[in-house]
Amino acid sequence: MAPFVKVDEDLSEEVAGVFAAAGYDAATVRDQGWGGLLDDELWLRIQPERRWLVTADKGFGDVRKYVPHTHEGIIILRADEENRRTYLRLASKVVGSIRLEDFAGALIEDTARDPHSQLNLRSHSSRFLESFEVLALIFCPSSISNLEFRISN
Fold this sequence. Notes:
This protein has a single domain (4-116), classed as Rossmann fold. The chain has helices spanning 13-21, 39-46, 84-97; strands at residues 4-7, 25-28, 51-55, 74-78, 107-111, 119-123, 136-139, 146-151. The longest helix is centred in the middle third of the chain and has 14 residues, at 84-97. Helix 1 runs parallel beside helix 3 (84-97). It starts with a strand and ends with a strand. It is of the alpha/beta class. It contains 3 helices and 8 strands. Strands 2-1-3-4-5-6-8-7 form an 8-stranded mixed beta sheet, with helices on one face.
């Protein structure tokens, strides 16, 4: 079964459509009437649903607060130019590049800054090393070890 995703209010509903077209069960924060919630409250409401969060909010990239593998997963779409077309392209790249079920609990950042536009994955698991040619940056804040993977299309 494909993972469930929740698209944050900072992204258009068309982003949810990109995930739905790829076979994911996609819902939006707006559809549930959760628009305007503070990040902490939104996070608490999403957790029982066991959904990946798809957002443009960089705050969800803090691995000290949103520790990999303590949640279903987070996808951050980071665009230099915040417009519908760019976010749709970034979302399409995510669903066309990886299967979310293979990266449960990870933090994935998709950025349009790099002309090669790589996906960055943070996880405290090294099981992905066998599947991809990766560049890894290992750092250890407190007791967990995080890896940053660069996955090329």
